[in-house]
Amino acid sequence: MTVNRKILLAQRPQRMFTDACFAIVEEPIPEPGDGEAVVRVEYLSLDPAMRGWVRDERSYLPPVQLGEVMRSGGAGRVVASRHPLFPVGAGVMGMLGWQEYAVIGGSSGVRANPVPDGVDLIDSLSLFGSTGVTAYFGVLDVGQPKAGETFVVSGAAGGVGSIAGQIAKIVGCRVVGIAGTKEKCSWVVDELGFDACIDYKAGDVAEALRDACPRGVDVYFDNVGGDILDAALQTMNDFGRIVACGMISRYNDSELSPGPEHMTNIVTRRLRMQGFIVIDFLARFAEAAMQLAVWAGEGRLTNRVHVVDGFLSAPTAINLLFDGGNIGKLVVKI
Ligand SMILES: NC(=O)c1ccc[n+]([C@@H]2O[C@H](COP(=O)([O-])OP(=O)(O)OC[C@H]3O[C@@H](n4cnc5c(N)ncnc54)[C@H](OP(=O)(O)O)[C@@H]3O)[C@@H](O)[C@H]2O)c1
């Protein structure tokens, strides 16, 4: 193969991503410059945050510009190298973008990390990538659950939520998930060991939470925001913690929607609600990856990956995150 296919951002989405948002271009496979390596990308990580990265507004990263390669995490192997730390054959992961070959290091501006021998590339994007690490720090550092407390997580059958709930189980919490189908709920209870799971499309979530959490909620790990956050606010115990990890129910909105109605509970119940971005914990990523590996090795953590085949599937597959079509971490195999 001599051609490098790239998917560029052509137009900003109004709501969901559409084909018109992207343009496919073909270029020769790049040669590495001094201090650079060329990676053949094997997997792309699809993340809800990508919807935020294409908004033309201030955020924790600059917006992807029209005509740029769509930003995304990726993992692959070095095929040509003039980089001292990345020999040919080495596994790497980083912000490789929607392209089949990526230049890393040197003047490319793309930082990549080695994937240790013995670690699957796909795990470097899921359990040991930002998904697992987000769950780890979100639960332990931000949520700070204690054994015996009740921990609720929304997006429970997704990449972050499924790991977050399992970590809270390891801590010794009663864990209740919230997810969008009966099948997802059965998976987190039967396979992951959650104590209960609420299908939020099947009825009143606040009422279901009261039933599933008779002693109230101590930690709510929020992946979705909106009405489900409002339902959680109604069931929080005094001095409870809300981990604001993500608010996917709002990511496709073109106008700001009203906030939750039960915000006064933050005052009366002395709640702490804290947002975080996983890169805040960059210096401690190795700690998280090591602990996650230990738990996985002990059989206490199940990592499910939803793999979609084909580079050109990426623009369509990303919408699975928004229509609930994925179970576990969503990845495209090139
Ligand atoms: N703070 C950070 O640093 C950080 C890092 C990574 C991810 N995140 C956030 O963590 C959350 C989960 O990310 P992920 O990568 O693990 O994705 P994911 O949970 O694997 O996939 C997204 C899931 O969100 C649910 N969803 C979509 N629209 C919804 C809506 N309107 N209401 C309720 N649920 C909805 C869907 O499941 P259902 O079938 O259950 O609806 C979908 O499967 C996202 O909010 C993401 O932005 C934050």
Task: Explain the overall architecture.
The chain has 334 residues and is an alpha/beta fold. It has 2 domains: 3-126 and 303-333, Alpha-Beta Complex (Quinone Oxidoreductase, Chain A, domain 1), CATH 3.90.180; 130-279, NAD(P)-binding Rossmann-like Domain (Rossmann fold), CATH 3.40.50.720. 27% of the residues lie in helices and 26% in strands. The chain has 11 helices and 15 strands. The chain has helices at 49-53, 121-125, 130-143, 159-171, 182-191, 205-212, 226-235, 264-268, 285-297, 314-317, 320-323, and strands at residues 3-9, 22-28, 36-45, 74-81, 91-94, 101-105, 112-114, 150-154, 174-179, 196-199, 217-222, 236-244, 272-275, 305-309, 329-333. Strands 3, 4, 5, 6, 7, 14 and 15 form a 7-stranded mixed sheet that branches. A 6-stranded parallel sheet has the order 10-9-8-11-12-13, with helices on both faces. Helix 3 (130-143) crosses helix 4 (159-171), helix 3 (130-143) crosses helix 9 (285-297) and helix 6 packs across helix 7 (226-235). It is globular. The chain starts with a strand and ends with a strand. The relative contact order is 0.15. The mean pLDDT is 97. NADP nicotinamide-adenine-dinucleotide phosphate (NAP) binds next to helix 3, helix 4 and helix 11.
Relevant terms:
single chain; 334 residues; Quinone Oxidoreductase, Chain A, domain 1; Rossmann fold; 2 domains; six-stranded parallel β-sheet; 11 helices; binds NADP nicotinamide-adenine-dinucleotide phosphate
